[in-house]
Amino acid sequence: MLPFQCCRRRHKSSDMAYLTTLISILLLFPSTTSQTLQNHSFDTFNSTSFNFLDVIPSASINGGALQVTPDSAGSEMVVTLNNNSGRIFFKTPFKLWDDSSSSQKLASFNTSFLINIFRVNNGTPGEGLAFIIAPSLTIPLNSSGGYLGLTNSTTDGNVTNRFIAVELDTVKQDFDINNNHIGLNINSVRSNLSVPLDFELAPNGTKFYVLWIEYDGDRRHIDVYMAEQPSRELPIVKKPVKPVLNSSLDLKEWVNRESYFGFSASTGNTVELNCILKWNISIEAFGEKGKSGKALAIGLGVGIPLFLILISAGLYYYYLIKKKKEEDNYGSNSQIMGTLKSLPGTPREFNYQELKKATNNFDEKFKLGEGGYGVVYRGILPKEKLEVAVKKFSRDKMKSTDDFLAELTIINRLRHKHLVKLQG
Ligand SMILES: *[C@@H]1O[C@H](CO)[C@@H](O)[C@H](O)[C@H]1NC(C)=O
Ligand SMILES: *[C@@H]1O[C@H](CO)[C@@H](O)[C@H](O)[C@H]1NC(C)=O
Ligand SMILES: *[C@@H]1O[C@H](CO)[C@@H](O)[C@H](O)[C@H]1NC(C)=O
Ligand SMILES: *[C@@H]1O[C@H](CO)[C@@H](O)[C@H](O)[C@H]1NC(C)=O
Ligand SMILES: *[C@@H]1O[C@H](CO)[C@@H](O)[C@H](O)[C@H]1NC(C)=O
Q1: What's the pLDDT at 129?
Q2: Which DSSP state fits 19?
Q3: Is 188 in the pocket of ligand 4 (CB under 6 A)?
Q4: Which one of 186, 298, 365, 424 has the minimum C-beta count within 10 Å?
Q5: Domain locations in the chain?
């Protein structure tokens, strides 16, 4: 039975008459992860792209494309097209998993991009282009040639590199399968997995290809698809059914929680242009404070319990405390506090002012929904910077303190991944 029932007989209905307003608070902490999608789409690249992208020399933006290695020689910066490396990243990192250690959830993402690896003067191409997930907006020194801008002779293979890459390699090193392959690389230019391609990455003339890289954070699996695209202007072709490369991959093991997405490339004794012409990213975002609240409101609004459902807690505030009834009030209060203390996890006590502030004075705009005994508001505890749900019990609907305590006790017992915890 509920632990407070032992006290029930002490509670006379007359006591309740003095509780002009009984407010209790439900605190909802988004303890589970909440996903919304973050989307970015580049149909072309120009000077405004610098607002979103970090371009690390010898990379540049030119001709409506990301030139991950130089597309023209002769300037002071680039004396020759040979032996260059460069990287271009999306400026802000993506969070790949939640910081709450309880959650095993990894972000899923899809990225697709249109590329042109161009063989200069019908010469021999070199060296390659890669999609990379990296820990910082930097490039290793001396990462030209076979290092693809990914590593150098000192750092190659070091687990502290914290990157994974999907490489398109046009030069055969002694450890490579051939001079026209796709590979999955972890911390090294030596691919963990390589697949020879049955079409030429850098043929004579100009060919465009689309790559789709899909990472499933639940299955911890990566699929890479590739298809030829007839021209730069035509709509992007359909993704093939069969991936060209696929592998299980636990990103949590290899990269940082906050990682940068982008491209890396190099040239060596032989050169190619490594161009990205279009780029889309769609990635699951973990609820930032505020963002998840919005999603919660939407979720409840459309009647879909997206990630959180209620929870609760109690705190009592007597709107009008009549001095002479202090004793009675004290009786109810101590009953509630007694119950709170007896609950597993010992929910803490919040004062009314704190919650009033957290909900902007129970602002209508913060209203998430209405339950049996009252209204639920979204709130932010300023001190803790925590997003919570606050339930304001209404006296009309609740017949007694017991009803409240019963709800409190039940909510505190609920444990479910879509339910957030009772905080106090
Ligand atoms: C990625 O694409 C697949 C379909 O190919 C889709 O099922 C999945 O929801 C997408 N994931 C993201 C994060 O956009
Ligand atoms: C990016 O997404 C838009 C909108 O869905 C689509 O039209 C376009 O073809 C995509 N581009 C690439 C490179 O996948
Ligand atoms: C890997 O890199 C770290 C940090 O740069 C360095 O301390 C360590 O010695 C390197 N390990 C090897 C085997 O080179
Ligand atoms: C991939 O290669 C890295 C670096 O050589 C190595 O640490 C790792 O164990 C390899 N992983 C797999 C799955 O082969
Ligand atoms: C590429 O084209 C040039 C002439 O433009 C030709 O000399 C060369 O043999 C061709 N190379 C290949 C691999 O087809």
Answers
A1: 98
A2: -
A3: yes
A4: 365
A5: 35-285, 295-413
**Res. 21: pLDDT tops 50:** no
Mean pLDDT of the chain: 79
| Both structure tokens of 182 | 């796709």
pTM above 0.85, yes or no: no
pLDDT of residue 290: 41
CA separation for the pair 120, 117 (Å, rounded): 9
Considering the segment(s) 35-285 as one domain, its CATH architecture is: Sandwich (2.60)
Q: What angle separates helix 326-342 from helix 401-413, to the nearest 10 degrees?
A: 20
* Paired tokens of 187: 């911390």
Q: Are 120 and 274 in contact (CB under 8 A)?
A: no
Percentage of the chain lying above the pLDDT 90 cut: 54
pLDDT at 371 (0 to 100): 65
CB atoms within 10 A of CB 364: 9
User: What tokens does 108 get?
Assistant: 């899923």
**Separation of alpha carbons 220 and 164, rounded Å:** 14
Is the link from the previous residue into 47 a cis peptide, with omega within 30 of 0? no
Q: Among 39, 40, 42, 43, say which to mutate for ligand 2: greatest number of ligand atoms within 8 Å of CB.
A: 43
Q: Which of 159, 186, 253 for a ligand 4 pocket mutation test, highest count of atoms within 8 Å of Cβ?
A: 186
Tally Cβ neighbours within 10 Å of residue 351: 11
Greatest Cα pair distance, the chain, in angstroms, is: 97
Q: Of 10-19, 75-84, 200-209, 329-338, where does mean pLDDT reach its minimum?
A: 10-19
Kindly report, residue by residue over 124-155, the tens digit of the pLDDT: 999 999 999 999 999 999 999 999 999 999 99
CB-based burial of residue 40 (10 Å sphere; 0-12 exposed, 13-18 middle, 19+ buried)?
A: middle
Distance CA 368, CA 300 (A): 7
Given a contact cutoff of 8 angstroms between Cβ atoms, the answer to whether 95 and 69 are in contact is no
Mode of pairing for the β-strands spanning 94-95 and 109-119: unpaired
What is d(CA 201, CA 203) in angstroms, rounded to the nearest whole number? 6
- The answer to whether residue 200 scores a pLDDT higher than 50 is yes
Which residues lie with the beta carbon below 6 Å from any ligand 5 atom? 122, 204
